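Students often ask why inverse folding is considered easier than folding. One informal answer: many sequences map to the same fold, so there is more than one right answer. In these notes we will look at a single instance of the problem. The structure comes first.
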């Protein structure tokens, strides 16, 4: 049987890793796929030929559209990233009847509905395992391994940069800005780290996971997104004192009212396995009705971990090249005509517990005023920690943990507490999830 020809768009970190894995493991990959897979063309403006042994044997140009239009290429692998021209290239490849593999989470989160519809019409597949959690096969697990289950909720540490920062803050008592600079120096964070530290990257990935878990359209614009830039080393230490750790989680849950989709710093009990995922590693915890809780852990980024997922997608596509399009695994796990427009719940409707830290005037009666406001709002306090002021200081820190309450009630209470003359500055609010899997 003739080998399958692949066109590779991008020879950067992931593109280079993909090229090297395919070349190095060619014999093993052929045994798994049932036929040879070879990259015949690539498009890249710049690349390190020294790090790509064998690159001289293929046709490399800076014209990605020429690769997409080449009639001899069966599969296009898009590893350029970003929204454009990636979207245009992928849609052109589909129009040309080619299957597509991509690691582009932003593209899928924002334009996946359009792309999958076009692919369905042309009878081709778009594979995107590498778009979420790097080398962890979480999409395959949700679409296939857990297809017998009704997913209750899932949560994940799905951005390694943020996890590295929070781990260093906890383990070494460092400040956010200090660790961020190190993350940039190590190449974990971009020069502009906004997508990582403000949760946008994680929101792209959560959008994809929620759609596959619950069979809903991709709706990135409905994900509540909050970053970690306001987290202090004091917050990390106080959380530890209560027996919790702060993680930047993506969280989605099915409720009677609809689907929650949210990314924010979260306190979770330190005994949970996911609370002990440190450094740049990723993990996704899924709770389903039949299997219960399952945890998926591994490298969420990097050249070869991500290439592992890209090449696995290529192998899957090669296996299905001769399959009837109606019998393939659907892009979002559910058959296209069964995608349900279940409402996404507004953040004010979400119910969770909270960590609150406030700076207060050090005098009698302050805690009573705060407790009165919380009580009137129907908010029950679980635990209190009061830090004595430094000698000569007039302000003290009060840290509270609450029981589960609706976000709207908490918003109202925080506004009233911040209006007190004895409260200084904004209240630090971090949501808290116990992640019980019973």
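Output (designed amino acids):
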């Amino acid at each position: 049987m003739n080998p399958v020809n692949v066109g590779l768009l991008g020879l950067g970190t992931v593109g280079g890793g993909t090229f090297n894995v395919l070349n190095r493991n060619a014999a093993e990959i052929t045994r798994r796929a049932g036929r040879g897979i070879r990259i015949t063309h690539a498009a890249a403006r710049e690349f390190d030929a020294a790090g790509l042994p064998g690159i001289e044997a293929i046709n490399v140009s800076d014209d990605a559209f020429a690769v997409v239009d080449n009639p001899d290429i069966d599969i296009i692998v898009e590893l350029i990233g970003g929204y454009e021209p990636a979207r245009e290239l992928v849609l052109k490849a589909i129009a040309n009847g080619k299957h597509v593999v991509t690691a582009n989470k932003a593209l899928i989160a924002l334009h996946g509905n359009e792309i999958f519809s076009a692919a369905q019409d042309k009878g081709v597949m778009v594979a995107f395992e590498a778009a979420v959690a790097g080398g962890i096969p979480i999409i395959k697990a949700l679409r296939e391994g857990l297809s017998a289950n009704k997913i209750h909720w899932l949560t994940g540490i799905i951005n390694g940069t943020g996890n590295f920062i929070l781990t260093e803050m906890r383990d070494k008592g460092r400040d956010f800005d200090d660790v961020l600079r190190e993350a940039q120096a190590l190449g974990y964070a971009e020069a502009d780290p906004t997508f990582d530290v403000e949760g946008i990257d994680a929101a792209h990935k959560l959008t994809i996971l929620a759609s596959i878990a619950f069979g809903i359209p991709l709706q990135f614009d409905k994900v509540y997104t909050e970053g970690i830039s306001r987290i202090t080393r004091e917050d990390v230490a106080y959380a530890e004192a209560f027996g919790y750790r702060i993680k930047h989680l993506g969280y989605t849950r099915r409720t009677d009212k609809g689907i929650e989709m949210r990314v924010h710093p979260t306190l979770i009990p330190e005994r949970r396995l996911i609370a002990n995922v440190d450094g740049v590693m990723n993990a996704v915890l899924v709770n389903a009705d039949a299997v219960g809780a399952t945890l998926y852990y591994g490298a969420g980024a990097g050249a070869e971990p991500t290439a592992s997922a890209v090449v696995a997608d290529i192998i899957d596509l090669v296996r299905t090249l001769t399959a009837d399009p109606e019998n393939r695994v659907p892009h979002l796990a559910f058959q296209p005509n069964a995608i349900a427009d279940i409402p996404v719940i507004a953040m004010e409707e979400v119910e969770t517990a909270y960590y609150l830290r406030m700076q207060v005037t050090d005098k009698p009666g302050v805690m009573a005023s705060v407790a009165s406001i919380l009580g009137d709002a129907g908010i029950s306090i679980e635990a209190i920690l009061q830090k004595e002021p430094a000698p000569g200081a007039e302000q003290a820190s009060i840290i509270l943990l609450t029981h589960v309450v609706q976000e709207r009630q908490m918003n109202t209470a925080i506004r009233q507490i911040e209006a007190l003359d004895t409260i200084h500055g904004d209240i630090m609010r971090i949501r808290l999830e116990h992640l019980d899997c019973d």
